[in-house]
Amino acid sequence: MILPLTFRDVSFEIGGTRLIKDLNCTLEAGPRTMILGANGAGKSLFLRLCHGLLEPSAGRISWRGAKGGDPRRDQAMVFQHPVMLRRSAAANVAYALKLKRTPQADWPAIIDDALSHTGLRRLSLTPARVLSIGEQQKLALARAWALKPQVLFLDEPTASLDPASTHAVEEIINAIHGQGTRIVMTTHDLAQARRLADEVMFLNRGRLLEMAPADRFFKQPENDLARAFLKGDLLWWRRGRDNLKRKPSKPGPNGEGQRR
Ligand SMILES: Nc1ncnc2c1ncn2[C@@H]1O[C@H](COP(=O)(O)OP(=O)(O)OP(=O)(O)O)[C@@H](O)[C@H]1O
Ligand SMILES: [Mg+2]
C-alpha cells in the first residue's frame, strides 16, 4: 500500500500569491474523504498536489513509498472535465491499460468489466468524444476502474450530471471503494458529501481549517467558518472572517440590513 500520504507544512504559490497555505494532513488507508469548501478554496489545487501534477513551493508531500508499490503508477485522478482520446470508448480504456503496462492479453476482459460496471458496454465502439458529458464522466470512471488504483482522486465527478446519473456515479464510486481503492474527492453537493463521506476536509482560502470524521463534522463542526459553510452562510464576497464577526444589524423598515 502506497498510503499514507502526508503533507507537512505544504504551501503552493503562483506569481508570489500563496494559494495553499501551511497545509498539514495525513491521508490514511481506508476511509472515503470528501473535500469541501467554497469556490476558489483550493480543493482542486490540493488534489493536483496530491496527484503530483503540481510541486509544492514549500514543505513536503510524501507517500509511504517503494515498500508498498509505485506512488506514480498506483494512483489515478478523474477530472471534472475528463479529456478523451479521439477513439472509441473501449480504446480509451485500452490506452490507460497500455500506459500502466498491463499485459495486453488481459485487456479484453478488463475493458469489458469496466464498461459493464459503468453501464457503457453498449457504447464501447462509439467514439468517446461524441458521448454525452455524463457518459464521458462514466467513461473516465471506467478508465479508473480498469486501472484498479490504490488511491483515486476525483474532482467533482458529478458536477454536470442529472440526478439519475449522479446516483449511478455514486454507486460506481462506492463499488470502486468496495474493491479496496482509497477515494479522495471534492464535491459541492452537501447531500452527496453526507451520503459518501467517512471523513471530511474543509478548506477555506487555501487553508485546511478542519479535518474530521464525517459524523462529527456534519453534526458539530468545530470551525466557525465550516459551520457557516454548512448553513449556506459562508459569504465568499467578503474577506476572511469579517462576515462572521459582523453583528447582524437591525432590520430597516423594508427588511434591509438583515443578514442574508
Ligand atoms: N494557475 C493559476 N494561477 C493563478 N491562480 C490560480 C491558478 N490556479 C488556481 N488559482 C487560484 O487558486 C485558488 C484555488 O483554486 P482551486 O481551483 O483549487 O479552487 P477550488 O476550491 O477547486 O474551487 P471550485 O470549487 O470553484 O472548483 C483560486 O482562487 C484560483 O483562482
Ligand atoms: Mg475545483
Question: How would you describe this protein?
Answer:
- It is a single chain.
- This protein is of the alpha/beta class.
- It has one domain: Rossmann fold (3-Layer(aba) Sandwich).
- 33% of the residues lie in helices and 22% in strands.
- It has helices at residues 43-51, 89-99, 107-117, 133-147, 163-178, 190-196, 214-219, 224-230, 242-245, and strands at 5-14, 17-27, 33-36, 58-63, 75-78, 151-155, 182-186, 199-204, 207-213.
- Strands 5-6-7-3-8-9 form a six-stranded mixed sheet, sandwiched between helices.
- Helix 5 links the parallel strand 6 and strand 7 (182-186).
- Helix 2 (89-99) packs across helix 3 and helix 2 packs parallel to helix 4 (133-147).
- The longest helix is centred in the middle third of the chain and has 16 residues, at 163-178.
- The chain is globular and about 50 Å long.
- The termini are far apart.
- Magnesium ion is lined by residues 43-44, 155.
The ligands bound in this entry are: adenosine-5'-triphosphate, magnesium ion
CATH homologous superfamily title: P-loop containing nucleotide triphosphate hydrolases
Tally the beta strands: 9
Secondary-structure element string: EEEHEEHHHEHEHEEHHH
**Strand neighbour order, sheet with most strands:** 5-6-7-3-8-9
Largest sheet: 6 strands, mixed
Distance between the termini: 47 Å
Query: Would you tell me which CATH topology applies?
Result: Rossmann fold
